[in-house]
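Hi all, posting the design record for the shared folder.

TITLE: backbone redesign
STEP: 1 of 1
STRUCTURE INPUT:
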């Protein structure tokens, strides 16, 4: 049995022939990831089958993922801790003129599809698979300035939905640490009910109100508080290549403390949240603009320099999801999808 067959044989498409077709498609595209769809297809019949599969409205993205999801959950067993990186990205299809179902994306002049992914990674940094993925198209209304807030609030729901899905799929014996960049600094996410052994490790974006203890009368801003904390030690970290950064080593000063986050205005019902904060800063870098500065909020209780370092190391593994997405066949293979638009007219 091939790797693709083993990986996808549990796919639930409601018809064994469709699963067989999916396996053949993935096998062909996986063997030649840089080729266009017609080039990668073994013959015309296989090519027709692919387009028929893609235009079948009864096949949902979630069902296509179901087999890989099952295999991913199986790979988790035996891991004491798994990291789940959540990330929202844009699939950019600005040049596809005839394709329907595209919408506004982050780039105001572009169009495409929004995708939210939860990628599972072992604590040692080995990718284990995609546990959940959701894609959607923003409607044109979201371009209007007045509508932005509502759209952002609706989209922030994806983070909660992914956390929920991950908690349901990963057995309680396995500790899951959800990792996210600044987009994931959403108060509702911190306030969301978590199952036993489910923790958050999220880069801070908001200068939130904090208290040192629940009963404290003084309210201080998070970023200011962290500047007053003494440095506990240093660590050297290998920064991997990202779309915006060449790989290099960085020496970071490490500070950590415990605080109570105060709910934003109008969200008092969410209550205060106890949190550990880690601040890691590259103090000695000459080019200040590219100096690394990470402030991480975590529900894990950080009680030592070692624990702070351990979680900085985990956060640094988040590059895996960026790599995963920038090298994603969808993204890498714009050509393939453009081709798809053209060829469909030939084979329709
Ligand atoms: Mn992001």
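Okay, here is what came back for every position:
SEQUENCE:
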């Amino acid at each position: 049995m091939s790797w693709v067959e083993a990986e996808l044989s549990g796919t639930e498409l409601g018809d064994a022939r469709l699963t067989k077709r999916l396996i053949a498609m993935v096998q062909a595209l996986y063997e030649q990831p840089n080729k266009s769809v017609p080039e990668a297809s073994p013959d015309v019949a296989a090519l027709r089958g692919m387009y028929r599969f893609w235009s079948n409205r009864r096949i949902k993205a979630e069902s296509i993922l179901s087999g890989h999801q099952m295999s991913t959950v199986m790979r988790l067993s035996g891991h004491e801790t798994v990291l789940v990186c959540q990330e929202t990205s844009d699939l950019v299809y600005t040049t596809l003129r005839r394709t329907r179902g595209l919408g506004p994306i982050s780039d105001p002049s572009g169009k495409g599809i929004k995708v939210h992914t939860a990628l599972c990674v072992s604590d040692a940094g080995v990718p284990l698979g995609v546990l959940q993925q959701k894609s959607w198209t923003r409607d044109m209304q979201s371009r209007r300035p007045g509508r932005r807030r509502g759209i952002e609030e609706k989209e922030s729901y994806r983070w909660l939905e992914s956390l929920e899905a991950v908690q349901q799929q990963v057995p309680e014996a396995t500790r899951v640490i959800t990792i996210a960049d600044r987009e994931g600094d959403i108060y509702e996410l911190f306030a969301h009910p978590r199952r036993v052994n489910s923790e958050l490790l999220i880069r801070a974006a908001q200068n939130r109100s904090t208290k040192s203890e629940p009963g404290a009368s003084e309210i201080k801003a998070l970023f200011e508080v962290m500047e007053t904390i003494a440095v506990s030690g240093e660590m050297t970290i290998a920064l991997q290549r990202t779309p915006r950064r060449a790989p290099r080593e960085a020496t970071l000063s490490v500070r950590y403390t415990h605080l109570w986050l105060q709910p934003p205005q109008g969200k008092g019902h969410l209550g205060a949240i106890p949190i550990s904060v880690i601040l890691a800063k590259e103090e000695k870098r000459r080019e200040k603009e590219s100096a690394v500065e990470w402030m991480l909020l975590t529900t894990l209780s950080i009680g030592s320099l070692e624990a702070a370092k351990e979680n900085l190391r985990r956060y640094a593994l988040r590059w895996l999801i960026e790599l995963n997405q920038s090298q994603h066949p969808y993204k890498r293979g714009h050509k393939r999808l453009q081709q798809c638009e053209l060829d469909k007219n030939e084979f329709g």
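COMMENT: The chain has a mean pLDDT of 88.
Let me know if anyone wants the other runs.
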